[in-house]
Amino acid sequence: MMLAPPRWACAGALLITLSTACTRTAPAAAVERNLPVEAQPQGPDAYVLADDVSVRKLAPGVWLHVTEVTLEPFGRVSTNGLIIEEGETSLLVDTGWDARQGALLLDWARDTLRRPVRAAVVTHFHADRLGGVPALVPHGIPVRGLAETARIATSLGRQGPWETFTESSTVGSLELFFPGAGHAKDNIVVWHRDSGVLFGGCFVKDGAATNLGNVEDADVAAWPTSLARTRQRFPEARVVVPGHGQPGGPELLSHTEALLR
Q: Is residue 1 domain-resident?
């Protein structure tokens, strides 16, 4: 399904509110954090773009971007996304918390990676996934996501995806799959077969998580079945990237199931 592309773009057009952040109502202990950006190494496989944006190589042709924001009373909260090399271009999976962070990721892909972003994917409607979308609009970069994500974003007055699907889709080398509700009713996962990387987003918890975090928009009853569908569809996954915290392997799916129990 193709929606009409938006005609507006402004760095301030999309405000981050706790009502759509994945960490919205989680207690402080439930908020996962990566290393502070300033503590991360700088080099050919790791780049600090700002004090709240960093990029590091995760696998050949696959880069993990980490963006941070300060949320009261939690302090600095980080979230993960990917940049996938695709020939002379790249694909962006999730866009950071706001348009400034989204623009920094676009600039890095163009100027440092030398593979400008040609398309993007957002994995659900929360602000840590689609907050950077307004930065993509002036460049004519298409954004793909679930039709439900577009519907919810529109209802909240936010910029969501305008290339939509209902169950599965592909963007270049990426397979997009809606396994069913979990962390949110519209969460999708993203599979990159060439590297064996499965981006679970907030649908998957990191290994250090001791609870499910924010479940205000979750369908806890459906979540285990959705995880089983994910495991069945992507049995070859070697690296699993959660929405927050450190990447791991397929054990993160089992860990999420254990937290649900």
A: no
